[in-house]
Specification:
It holds the Pfam family TumE. This protein has 127 residues and is of the alpha+beta class. The protein is built from two helices and seven strands. It has a seven-stranded antiparallel β-sheet. The radius of gyration is 15 Å and the shape is globular. The termini are far apart.
């Protein structure tokens, strides 16, 4: 059952990418390590300039996808950070610890976004 849940999640992500316009997927690497664990790495170019690098380590717990670690890093053509969501535990004073969002000049508390929301944020930034 867990493997089906992981596969359904990966299928959902693939469909999200197929629905994006003006994107080039440089890398798509989904590895199902066990029946309950998978790693996902994706690099997407927008307008051949902006990069969204995605990294997720996920497991199935109680029939739901749960994230051990994640990073959604969005940057411009000069490699300048636009934003990054991640769960690296280096801001213990934030209310959403370990989840947070890096901005160009700040780090703010936030919960882990769904990848669909991150893609929407990127598209809105590019408009």
């Amino acid at each position: 059952m867990s493997r089906k849940i992981i596969q359904a999640y990966l299928d959902e992500i693939e469909q999200l990418l197929l629905n994006c316009s003006n994107v080039y997927v440089e890398e798509y690497n989904a590895v199902i390590l066990t029946t309950q664990r998978a790693n996902l790495r994706i690099r997407i170019r927008f307008a051949l300039r902006y990069l969204l690098a995605i990294s997720e380590i996920l497991v199935v717990v109680n029939n739901q996808v749960t994230y051990i670690d994640y990073r959604y890093h969005f940057q411009d053509a000069q490699n300048n950070l636009i934003f990054r969501y991640d769960s690296t535990p280096h801001f213990p004073n934030l209310s959403s610890f370990p989840h947070h969002k890096h901005l160009f000049d700040d780090v703010i508390a936030c919960e882990k976004p769904h990848l669909a929301d991150v893609l929407q944020e990127v598209m809105e930034f590019l408009e």
